[in-house]
Design brief:
Length: 272
C-alpha cells in the first residue's frame, strides 16, 4: 500500500497531462451540420467522410451547413458567424475554410471563404460552385447538391496542391480533352455556317432566270404608265413582348468581400 502511495503523484501528473491535451477538431465538431434533417444517415455519413478526407489530405476545412433560418441576417453573414462560432478555419491552427450554406425554407444558398481560402476560391470560382449546385437545389435533390460541391472542392484542392490556380473546369469536373473539343466545335460552327451562307449566295447569283415580283419586266418603253401605286393591307397583327430586366445578378444574390466581427471574408450567394 505504501508503494502505491509512493507512485500516486506520478499517476496524478500523468492524468493532468492527459486531460489538459487539446481536443482535436474531429472530436470537437462535425463538418456537416444539418439543422433541418434533409439528409438520411447514410447520405450524411458519406458527405462527412469526404470532407474528413479533404481535411486530412490537404489540411483544409470544407463545411456544409444546412440552416433552419438565417434569423433575418444576410446568408453570407450568417455563414461567417457560424464559422467563427465553431472555429472552422480559424483559431491557433490558422487553417483555411470554405463553407457551403443552404437555407431550404428561404430557398437561399451561398459559398463563403475564410482565411487564405479567399484567394484559393475567388468570387468567380464561387459563382461556379453556385452554378453546379443550383439545378439540384431547384429539383429538391439536396444530397446531390452538397455532394457535387464537395467533389468540386476535392478536385480544386488537387489542382491547388500542384501549385496551379483553380479553373472553372476544375469545379465543373470537365476534362481538358472535353474542354478543347468543345472549344474547337464552338469555333468551327460559325465557319461552317458562313461557308453555307456564302455558298447559297453564290449559287443564287449563278441563276439567270428568276421570278419577278414586280411588273417592270412586262413594261415596254413608254407602253405603260402607272399614275398611282398604293400598298393595301388586309390584316394587321401586333405582338407585344415583355423585355426582362437584367440586373446583373442571378437569383437576386450577392458576391464579393465583406467583414464579420472585424474579420475579412468573401462569399457569393443566390436564391433559387
Amino acid at each position: 500500500m505504501k508503494r502505491l502511495y509512493k507512485y500516486l503523484p506520478v499517476f496524478l501528473a500523468a492524468g493532468s497531462i492527459f486531460f489538459s491535451c487539446p481536443v482535436t477538431a474531429q472530436e470537437r465538431y462535425e463538418r456537416l451540420v444539418d439543422e433541418v434533417g434533409v439528409l438520411t444517415q447514410d447520405e450524411a455519413q458519406e458527405l462527412q467522410l469526404l470532407m474528413d478526407d479533404i481535411y486530412e489530405t490537404y489540411d483544409f476545412e470544407s463545411v456544409v451547413y444546412v440552416a433552419d433560418s438565417t434569423e433575418g441576417m444576410e446568408v453570407r453573414e450568417y455563414a461567417a458567424q457560424f464559422m467563427q462560432r465553431y472555429d472552422y478555419g480559424g483559431g491557433e491552427s490558422g487553417r483555411d475554410a470554405l463553407c457551403v450554406i443552404h437555407v431550404p425554407f428561404q430557398r437561399e444558398f451561398a459559398v463563403v471563404a475564410r482565411g487564405k481560402a479567399q484567394e484559393i476560391f475567388d468570387t468567380d470560382i464561387q459563382e461556379e460552385f453556385l452554378d453546379i449546385m443550383e439545378p439540384y437545389l431547384k429539383d429538391d435533390d439536396f444530397y446531390s447538391a452538397y455532394l457535387t460541391s464537395q467533389q468540386a472542392v476535392e478536385r480544386s484542392m488537387v489542382r491547388y496542391a500542384q501549385g496551379k490556380a483553380i479553373r472553372p473546369m476544375d469545379v465543373q469536373g470537365l476534362s481538358t480533352v472535353f474542354v478543347l473539343a468543345r472549344s474547337f466545335l464552338i469555333s468551327l460552327i460559325p465557319s461552317v455556317l458562313l461557308a453555307f451562307l456564302m455558298g447559297g449566295v453564290r449559287r443564287h447569283q449563278m441563276k439567270s432566270i428568276r421570278p419577278q415580283e414586280g411588273a417592270r419586266a412586262y413594261m415596254s418603253d413608254g407602253g405603260l404608265e402607272l399614275l398611282r401605286k398604293d400598298d393595301i393591307y388586309i390584316r394587321t397583327e401586333v405582338r407585344r413582348v415583355k423585355r426582362e430586366k437584367n440586373d446583373g445578378n442571378k437569383g437576386g444574390g450577392s458576391s464579393g468581400s465583406f467583414t464579420s466581427g472585424g474579420e475579412s471574408f468573401s462569399g457569393s450567394s443566390r436564391s433559387y
